[in-house]
Structures are given as C-alpha cells and as structure tokens.
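Sample 1 of the test manifest.
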Amino acid sequence: MKRAMIVALALALLSAACGDAKDPLVGIRASTDPAVGDGRLVFAVSELDGTRRGSPDEIVTVMASPLDEPDRSVEAVAEFTWIVQDVTGLYIAQVPFDTAGLWQIDFGISTGEETDSFLIDIQAEPLGIAVGEKAPVVATPTLDDMTLPELTTDPNPRLAMYRLSLDEALTNGRMTVVVFATPAFCTSATCGPLLDQVKGMADLAPDVDFIHLEVYQGFDDPTFSPSGEFLTPAVVAFGLVTEPWVFVMDESGVVVSRLDGILGAGELERILGVEAVGG
Amino acid sequence: MTNCRSFRLVLVVGLATLVATACAGDDSASEVSVSGVVTEVTGDLSVVSPFVVLDGDGDSHLFYPEQGLLFLGGPLAHLRDHVLSGERVTVIFEETSDGRLIAVLVEHQDDENHGRTG
C-alpha cells in the first residue's frame, strides 16, 4: 500500500513537471521567392498548436547561418507588424543573405521562451524580377481602355491608380509603385490591407506614380478560372509565383525594392523617402 | 421445412445487406479532416503542389491537392494568405494506399476543433 502511494506520488510529480514544461515557439517562414541579395525575411512566431504570437512588445532577434557554414552567422532585429491590429501580425527582418542554399534561422524572443530554429532556401536568383533589374516595360489596360469594374476587383478603388499604363509610368522619369493584388480572391485578412496601405501612400508621395494591377484577367469570360491561363501579361513578365507583391521602381525604371505579402509599418514610406503618417 | 429455408434465406440476405451497409459506412468514415494553420504552400499562381498544415497537437500534415481543387471558390494559391495571417483552415482529405493525403476540400475552420477527426 505504502509502495503504491509512493509510485502514485512520483507519477503525480512527474505529471506536474511535464505540465509546466512548455513547447518551444516555432518560426513559420512567410517569405516567398527568397534570393541572394534580397534580405527581406518575413516570418511568423507561433506556439506549437498554431496559436500566433508576437506584438510590438515582444522583441525578436534573428541569427541566420548558412547550413554548410554554421560558424558564420549574421544577426538582425526583426520588426513586428500587425496584419490585423491587436489580433495577428508578422515579423520582418533584414538579413544579408549572401550565398545560395539552405540557411538556418535561429530566433530569440524577449519573453525568454524557448524557440525552435527553421530553415529557408535562398536561391541564387529570384524567380521574379530582382532588385537592380529593369522592370519589364509592359502595356497594361487603363481607364481609357476599360471600365473600372473590368480593371479592378477592389471594392473601393482609387481611380488614379488606373489612369496610367505601366509602360508609360516606367518611362516618364518618375518613381513608380506597382501593387499586384487580386482583392476578389482575397480569402484572408492580408491582401486587402496591403492594397489599402499602398492607396493610402499615394497622397503622401504625389511625385510617385501608383498603379494597381490585377493578377488575373478575363473575369467576364464564361470559361474563366483563376489559373495560369488567365494570368495577366504583367504578372507573367514580372515572373510572380505568389501574390500580393509591391514593386518600387526608380526614375529610370529599375527595381529598387520588392516587397512580398505585407508592408511593415513605415516600410514603403522609408523606401520612398516620405514622412510616415503620424511620424 | 420450406418456411425454415425461406427464413434462412431472408436472414442471409438481411445479414449481407447489413454487411454491405456497414462497409459503405466504413468508406465514408475514411474521409477525415484536419484543422490547423497553413505553414507551407508550394507551387505558383497557376498550380499549388503540396501544402502543410500544423494541427492543434503540433503535428504537421503534408497534403496533395486534388486536381482542380479551389479554395473558397478562388485559387488554391490563396492558401498562402493564410500562412501570413495564421487563420485556421479545415482540410477534408482521403488517404491513399501509399499513405498520401489527398485534399478534397479546404475551408475556413468554423469551430474550435483543432485536431484530426475521423
């Protein structure tokens, strides 16, 4: 009887100890088309059951090492950005990936919790247009060619973003911001806000041309399906494999930034050299 | 005697029907679902190849989408939005004899059930 009680007590203690042990936090890579020279790493911090973590108060630092050179590492502080205010967000870190191949990303969080590393495959060159390359000079439909509902699936479109063809914008000596997004097929809280953020920037940067381009075309075609057959020529020319994307071109049409998925707080403002709202 | 034979025949047919019904029930039960967050989507804007869902128990599941599978009427590529947002999805799938999980339906998770159901 006494032995049974000791065993039961030991089991109870073991169970309590296990209950206190928390699983490490995991990093979920959200960057697509990562490549050498493009150091924008977007990732989520999550509990093992998928519950999202992160806030501006939870500071995350990143240490990245090429998998075949574990002794070499670079560090960066990640910036947190809400996707849905006070609900969910992501971290963005600028990591100078200088060699192609698998990189191990270790991260620490200011709460002191344990974390698991994750891997990211850095390509020698991106599938899409790279920073430093000339943007493809593609003619895109404008309000001169089509009606607004034919041009955009944005329920609250900004007319000025449909007045200029991309080929005109890239050759008129002004900076250009192009956002590729398809609000009609937006199934989550992410793609709508990205387009809205870019629209909001237009007032702050009157010397920059802003263009919204849909990802698919032929919505009126009875055979339409959101497939490769209906991708717009601009999406194909930019080599996009995911969306949404924001590309920033300088006055000579060269890509200076490519921003995948989300915009960080003040990120586009810094690229365009304009003052952030409220900043 | 004839009555007895008839009774036996009815009994056999009845049992066979019961077995057949039970087997049909097994087939529908083989369609199972997983709810969780999308952690990886491969492919491009035209075609999505495998995608990974992390369930509430911390287990990752690799799914191969059924040909032409859409996500809420749109391209399956938009699952990637859910990698960004962390919104949970439910995947209904069938398991092939070689252990591949074929996703036949993907939708927003509409309940608090985060595990695998059968």
